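STRUCTURE:
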């Protein structure tokens, strides 16, 4: 289950990074001002860093949530197949 959540976090981050790149290209194509082009690139880098940070936080949260899960003890025996109330 953890790997599915991690994969989802990675996919979301990848989509956000791609979206930031496409937005940067669109902004750079619509202006001739070098300062605005540089600002578009800076904004893209900030969005990509934020997406990566969010992905890492999601993975850390998934790991922490996994450690907090209490699994009930199933069985109650020693694993040898012999119960404690045998009548041999």
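SEQUENCE:
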């Amino acid at each position: 289950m953890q790997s599915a959540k991690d994969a989802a976090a990675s996919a979301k981050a990848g989509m956000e990074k791609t979206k930031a790149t496409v937005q940067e290209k669109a902004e750079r194509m619509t202006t001739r001002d070098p300062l605005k082009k540089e600002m578009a690139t800076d904004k893209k880098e900030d969005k990509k860093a934020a997406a990566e940070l969010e992905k890492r936080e999601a993975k850390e949260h998934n790991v922490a949530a996994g450690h907090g899960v209490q699994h009930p003890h199933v069985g109650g025996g020693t694993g040898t197949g012999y119960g404690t109330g045998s009548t041999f």
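REMARK: The chain has a mean pLDDT of 84.
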